[in-house]
Write a structure and sequence with these properties.
Number of domains: 2
CATH class of the largest domain: Alpha Beta
Distance between the termini: 49 Å
CATH superfamily of the largest domain: SPOUT methyltransferase, trefoil knot domain
CATH topology of the largest domain: Alpha/beta knot
CATH architecture of the largest domain: 3-Layer(aba) Sandwich
Number of helices: 11
Largest sheet: 7 strands, parallel
Structural class: alpha/beta
Order of helices and strands: EHEHHEHHEHEHEHEHEEEHEH
Number of strands: 11
Helix content: 40-55%
Length: 253
């Protein structure tokens, strides 16, 4: 699908990941270009890779890419290739005998999705699975918040999250949901298994049916004050505990 991206880091990662190739185009706002405020390192990369830099007058830039992109001064059009479910599983099995999937149960906030994609890239997630309905997908805002991480983590959409969880379980993937009502914490589980972590929506958390098909519910312990973290922060805490257990167990002297 055609996707508008904007912002220095997002455009840079689109270039470095090969999503903008030699002969492609990047568009910059006239005011930012003449003012010399665009990132000089990115401009050098674009020139080194023979990517065209097209200056647009500010009105045309806003009409085509919007005010948010105009504030950043740089934008591009890319083709975002959504993976298919079976292809995602096949590629993760080839690359990793202990995959980690992120399952999103009706996340609707682009900020949260973008943040989770960025965390997923940093924490080594094999792929992100989300429903086709009642959920945000990849948008320009999501791409910007992810800071280009969407080019490094595959995302797929499925018709039914509960059936997908059951399918993953049959394939030997352990499925754990994050819930503030759980009895066990993320520090009580050994994550050295093929794993999927399920994160619920911003308002109500996991749906009841989703909870019932998870093999385990886990919470993030809270000392005082608010009783829960938002979806993207909850996932970040869990993801880095998983990474710690798998790769950094023990304390380095």
């Amino acid at each position: 699908m055609r996707l508008i991206i904007y912002g220095t880091n997002t455009v840079r990662e689109a270039v470095l990941s090969g999503n903008i190739k030699k002969g492609g185009s990047v568009f910059v706002g006239e005011k930012k270009w003449k003012g010399g405020s665009l990132d000089k390192d990115l401009i050098r990369i674009l020139k080194d890779k023979n990517i065209n830099i097209t200056v647009k007058n500010d009105g045309a830039f806003i009409n085509e890419y919007g005010k948010e992109a105009f504030m950043k001064g740089i934008a591009a059009n890319v083709e975002y290739a959504e993976k298919q479910y079976e292809d995602l599983l096949d590629s993760s099995r080839v690359n990793n005998n202990m995959p980690l999937y992120l399952i999103l149960d009706e996340i609707t906030d682009p900020q949260n999705l973008g943040s989770m994609i960025r965390t997923a890239s940093g924490a080594g997630v094999s792929g992100i699975i989300m429903p086709k309905s009642n959920s945000v997908f990849i948008t320009p805002s999501v791409a910007y918040v992810s800071q280009g991480a969407l080019f490094y983590v595959d995302s797929v959409r499925v018709v039914n999250i509960s059936r997908t969880i059951e399918d993953l379980k049959r394939r030997g993937v352990w499925v754990a949901g994050l819930s503030g009502e759980a009895n066990d914490t993320i520090y009580d589980m050994d994550f050295n298994v093929p794993l999927a972590i399920v994160v619920g929506s911003e308002g109500r958390g996991l749906r009841r049916l989703t909870e019932t098909v998870c093999e385990k519910l886990l919470k993030i312990p809270m000392e005082s004050g608010v009783n829960s973290l938002n979806a993207s922060i909850s996932f970040a805490v869990a993801a880095y505990e998983i990474l710690r257990q798998r790769k950094y167990s023990g304390v380095k002297k």
